[in-house]
């Protein structure tokens, strides 16, 4: 790791102010993405702003517009939450499959969305469930949040404080794990939302998550798994690597979309 | 970086295996390096250094974490338990004893992390099924045993911990 200075934020305002004062600062949530990046010298922040003591960002509560989850809530807390399991069981299952138990003890919702990993499970959930990402200064729809590989709509000094997941009529998740890393080679979340209709989100297949509008239209006529059978995914632009060709991933998208819809019931 | 302002060292205090510890560290010091090099607690191993293998698992405030993927400064104010903190005097911890009895190790490199993971599992799920044990060990790699005896040892330790209660209704 390159050397960096370290400050511990005592409030959201404090964290944002520290980022504004020192150019090249970076927020540190659970560190499950940032620390491995720093170790590989893929980032060189002047200062890490530790959010670990912002206890006010660790909560899960139900409100009229859905389940609100604080940005610093760990994956283990979400996966184990009775409230989440009851309201959006597919979300609880999805989060329970992130990383491994030790990663879930440290990794956070805010960190997972802010890093926008192309195979990030939470990214699929935010997109498919039409989540709203709340920051220290505004509310951002998931559709406007993920901008490309590792890129988001967040400004450098902008901090996610909570995420609102509207409760869907139904939702399902299907993930094909890369056999060594257990990351999603491809995964699909399908949800029938109350406000935005059917939404299907894909991760792992390309450099950034994306939705399947044609399938969503078909599902709006009737919710059935076979709707995915006629899905034609163009491999052009999909990821091709050691673990699978673009054509293979295109095929997986259809298979997993079918399974996700079936999983939703 | 040579012309940059010198990095400020950070003072940290934590309880490690019931002993209070205070030190000044470079912010980039990993918890595992602090444990091994500053405190000389070398039972915690560094395997992959990329949070894949789990050889470095310790408990921070009662939860198993990978100490290679946490900064020492992030553990400031925490209670840490390492593999050295499990045994009481001459008596192995029941999970350590079960690993010994069930031949759950060959080279032993992954063992400290395996044991710390298993202790956390049993603390939160006293009677795990074999399936739950295997799912829990997703973040602990063993390149020798094929896992079979590790799973048996953890199941045996859980049964042993449960036995006194069920034997005396």
Automatic annotation (TrEMBL), chain A:
GO terms for molecular function: FAD binding; oxidoreductase activity. Keywords: FAD, Flavoprotein, Oxidoreductase. Gene3D superfamilies: 3.30.465.10, CO dehydrogenase flavoprotein, C-terminal domain (3.30.390.50), Uridine Diphospho-n-acetylenolpyruvylglucosamine Reductase, domain 2 (3.30.43.10). The keyword Acetylation does not apply. It comes from the Bacteria. Residues 1-170 form the FAD-binding PCMH-type domain. This is FAD binding domain-containing protein. It comes from Defluviicoccus vanus.
């Amino acid at each position: 790791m390159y050397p960096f200075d370290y400050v511990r934020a005592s409030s959201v305002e404090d964290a944002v102010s520290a980022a504004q004062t020192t150019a090249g600062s970076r927020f540190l949530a659970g560190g499950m993405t940032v620390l491995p990046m720093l170790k590989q010298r893929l980032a060189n922040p002047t200062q890490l702003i530790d959010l670990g003591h912002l206890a006010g960002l660790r909560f899960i509560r139900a409100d009229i517009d859905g389940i609100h989850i604080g940005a610093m809530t760990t994956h283990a807390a979400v996966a184990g939450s009775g409230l989440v399991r009851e309201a959006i069981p597919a979300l609880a299952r999805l989060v329970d499959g992130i990383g491994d138990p030790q990663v879930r003890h440290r990794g956070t919702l805010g960190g997972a969305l802010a890093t926008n990993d192309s195979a990030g499970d939470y990214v699929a959930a935010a997109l498919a469930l039409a989540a709203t990402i709340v920051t220290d200064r505004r509310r951002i729809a998931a559709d406007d949040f993920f901008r490309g590989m590792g890129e988001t709509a967040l400004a450098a000094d902008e901090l996610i404080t909570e995420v609102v997941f509207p409760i869907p009529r139904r939702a399902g998740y299907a993930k094909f794990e890369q056999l060594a890393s257990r990351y999603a080679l491809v995964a699909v979340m399908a949800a029938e939302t109350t406000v935005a209709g059917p939404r299907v989100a894909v991760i792992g297949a390309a450099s950034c998550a994306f939705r399947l509008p044609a399938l969503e239209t078909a599902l709006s006529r009737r919710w059935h798994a076979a709707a995915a059978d006629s899905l034609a995914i163009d491999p052009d632009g999909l990821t091709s690597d050691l673990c699978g060709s673009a054509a293979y991933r295109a095929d997986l998208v259809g298979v997993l979309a079918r399974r996700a819809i079936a999983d939703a019931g | 970086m040579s012309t940059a302002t010198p990095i400020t060292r950070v003072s940290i205090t934590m309880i490690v295996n019931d002993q209070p510890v205070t030190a000044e560290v470079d912010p980039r010091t990993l918890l595992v390096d602090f444990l091994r090099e500053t405190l000389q607690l070398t039972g915690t191993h560094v395997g992959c250094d990329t949070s894949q293998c789990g050889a470095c698992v310790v408990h921070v405030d009662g939860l198993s974490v990978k100490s290679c993927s946490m900064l020492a400064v992030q553990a400031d104010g925490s209670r840490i338990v390492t593999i050295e903190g499990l045994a009481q005097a001459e008596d192995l911890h029941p999970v350590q004893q079960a690993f010994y009895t069930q031949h759950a190790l060959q080279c032993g490199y992954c063992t400290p992390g395996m044991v710390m993971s298993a202790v956390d599992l049993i603390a939160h799920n006293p009677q795990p099924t074999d399936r739950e044990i295997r799912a829990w060990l997703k973040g602990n790699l063993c390149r020798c045993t094929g896992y079979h005896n590790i799973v048996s040892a953890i199941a045996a330790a859980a049964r042993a911990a449960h036995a006194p209660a069920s034997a005396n209704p």
